[in-house]
Amino acid sequence: MLLKGGSHVRPMPSRKKVECDLWRTAKDIEYNSYNSSK
């Protein structure tokens, strides 16, 4: 997993966590829809 801006740059940790959760959720949805379309 690539981190934007590098792991040493942390402007707002809480916002990063939310973005990470959203990203992970989006990936899960993509993965599930990909599997169900087979």
- Oligomeric category: single chain
Could you tell me the number of beta strands? 0
Helix and strand succession? H
* Biggest sheet details: none
Radius of gyration: 13 Å
Key terms for this structure?
0% strand; 63% helix
Topology (SSEs and partners):
Layout: H1 13-36
Descriptive report:
The chain is mostly helical and 38 residues long. 63% of the residues lie in helices and 0% in strands.
Describe what is shown at a glance:
By secondary structure, this protein is mainly alpha-helical. The protein is 63% helix and 0% strand.
